[in-house]
């Protein structure tokens, strides 16, 4: 795995370097807080269903707000928008400090939802802006780095978050989370390169009118319907999202099955992050980044997730379980990078924010439903059987995605042949 192209990109491109460091910083804080929040919810409520609300609110609020985030990402200055989203998250993140008893747990849950709304503005804007910060030939490298940033800080943030929560207390983790958003905003302020192309104007020089959220969603659907390739990339994350509720079970296994408390939760989430960190690098090396390679890579990622999580409940010890989680998220990290890269290349800058808001909104909506189901299954079934039900769901959805996308991998010119479905 050659790292020199990635190091070269970070050294030579200061605007991209700032965006990358901003992502690393905010992701680290996110996972510091998430591990502490899951432990707090389980401790104050004693219920996996209540703990699942942490993940449900993260994904559900994001899904609701994402269409609006896409509209404003295409109509407003993207740098100012990301800075505003970051600074707004600082006081919200500090609200976690107020959740001390079962009666005040609702404050933390409300703060989770508000942070997700801010993220629904930040994340599609960042993804839409990325192609404007790098040259076209650098875009695959940039996506690998940005994709691995989430995994890097999940690995580091979750592991350290579990240790900090166990040693210094959860308040320390919450303070780190709030500070991370402030630092991220300061980094983005320093980006001077335009994050979007000039807005389209009418013949008389006036800016074209804005579109509504409903029109934004309709535009994204219409664009995807004209290309089977775009549809495949849009449905990729959602396909994986069907089984993402299994992530809730990492908290149950880490804390209860293996009896390791917040540290156990942190270890399993860190393994998830380490897999997501390394997956994009390995996958790009194996299958490349042309359209056929992206589709083949996503298919292989599905197999990796199903096999590793299928074996996860059989793990005799925490370290074995962590190794299987690592393997599963090698695939998860790879498919996220592949689908994002494909969508960036296929979407014009003028609608790229809306395409990514639809992409993220769709997957987080499915993740919300998946997490609710996982929480209910955790109450009704033994933890191993709850995991196997979620694995079966992602295997079914993955099989359908494979049947939909497979014909394109046999075509001599995928992009041209995919137009029109």
**Which CATH class applies here?**
Mainly Alpha
Shape: globular
What structural category characterises the helix and strand content? mainly alpha
The percent of residues in helical segments reads over 70%
Taking Cα atoms only, what radius of gyration do you get, to the nearest Å? 20 Å
Number of discrete helical segments: 16
* CATH fold group: Growth Hormone, Chain: A
| Beta-strand fraction estimate | under 5%
Name the helix and strand elements from N-terminus to C-terminus, one letter apiece. HHHHHHHHHHHHHHHH
Largest sheet: none
Provide the residue-averaged pLDDT: 82
Report the CATH superfamily: MFS general substrate transporter like domains
* Total count of strands: 0
Provide structural commentary:
With 421 residues, the chain is mainly alpha-helical. It is built from 16 helices and no strands. It has a single domain (14-196, 214-408), classed as Up-down Bundle (Growth Hormone, Chain: A). The chain has helices spanning 4-12, 14-45, 48-75, 78-94, 105-129, 139-167, 170-189, 213-225, 228-241, 248-257, 261-287, 291-311, 318-346, 349-380, 383-405, 414-418. The radius of gyration is 20 Å and the shape is globular. The two termini are 35 Å apart. 58% of the residues are buried.
From the structure above, extract its key features.
421 residues, mainly alpha, Growth Hormone, Chain: A, 16 helices, 0% strand, globular
Produce a short descriptive summary.
This protein has 421 residues and is mainly alpha-helical. The protein has helices spanning 4-12, 14-45, 48-75, 78-94, 105-129, 139-167, 170-189, 213-225, 228-241, 248-257, 261-287, 291-311, 318-346, 349-380, 383-405, 414-418.
């Amino acid at each position: 795995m050659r790292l020199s192209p990635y190091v070269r990109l970070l050294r030579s491109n200061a605007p991209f370097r700032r965006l990358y460091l901003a992502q690393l910083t905010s992701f680290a804080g996110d996972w510091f807080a998430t591990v502490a929040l899951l432990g707090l919810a389980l401790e104050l409520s004693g219920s996996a269903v209540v703990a699942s609300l942490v993940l449900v609110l993260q994904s559900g609020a994001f899904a609701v707000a994402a269409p609006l985030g896409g509209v404003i990402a295409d109509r407003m200055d993207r740098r100012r928008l990301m800075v505003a989203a970051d600074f707004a998250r600082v006081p919200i993140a500090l609200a976690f400090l107020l959740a001390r008893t079962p009666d005040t747990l609702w404050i933390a849950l409300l703060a989770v939802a508000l942070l997700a709304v801010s993220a629904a503005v930040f994340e599609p804007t960042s993804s839409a802006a990325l192609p404007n910060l790098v040259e076209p030939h650098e875009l695959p490298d940039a996506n690998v780095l940005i994709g691995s940033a989430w995994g890097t800080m999940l690995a580091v943030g979750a592991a350290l978050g579990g240790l900090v929560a166990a040693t210094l207390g959860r308040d320390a983790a919450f303070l780190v989370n709030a500070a991370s958003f402030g630092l991220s905003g300061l980094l983005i302020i320093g980006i001077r390169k335009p994050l979007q192309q000039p807005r389209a104007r009418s013949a008389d020089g006036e800016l074209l009118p804005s579109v509504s959220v409903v029109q934004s969603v309709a535009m994204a659907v219409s664009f995807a319907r004209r290309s089977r390739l775009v549809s495949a990339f849009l449905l990729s994350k959602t396909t994986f999202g069907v089984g993402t509720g299994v992530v809730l079970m990492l908290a149950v296994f880490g804390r209860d099955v293996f009896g390791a408390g917040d540290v156990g939760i942190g270890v399993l989430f860190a393994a998830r992050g380490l897999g997501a960190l390394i997956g994009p690098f390995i996958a790009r090396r194996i299958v490349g980044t042309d359209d056929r390679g992206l589709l083949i890579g996503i298919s292989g990622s599905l197999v990796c997730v199903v096999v590793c999580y299928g074996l996860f409940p059989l793990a005799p010890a925490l370290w074995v379980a962590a190794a299987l989680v690592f393997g599963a998220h090698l695939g998860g990290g790879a498919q996220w990078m592949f689908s994002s890269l494909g969508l960036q290349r296929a979407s014009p800058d003028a609608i790229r924010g809306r395409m990514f808001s639809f992409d993220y909104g769709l997957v987080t909506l499915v993740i919300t439903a998946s997490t609710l189901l996982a929480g209910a299954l955790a109450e009704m079934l033994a933890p191993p059987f709850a995991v196997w039900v979620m694995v079966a769901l992602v295997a079914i959805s993955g099989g359908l995605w494979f049947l939909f996308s497979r014909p394109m991998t046999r075509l001599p010119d995928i992009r041209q042949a995919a137009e029109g479905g």
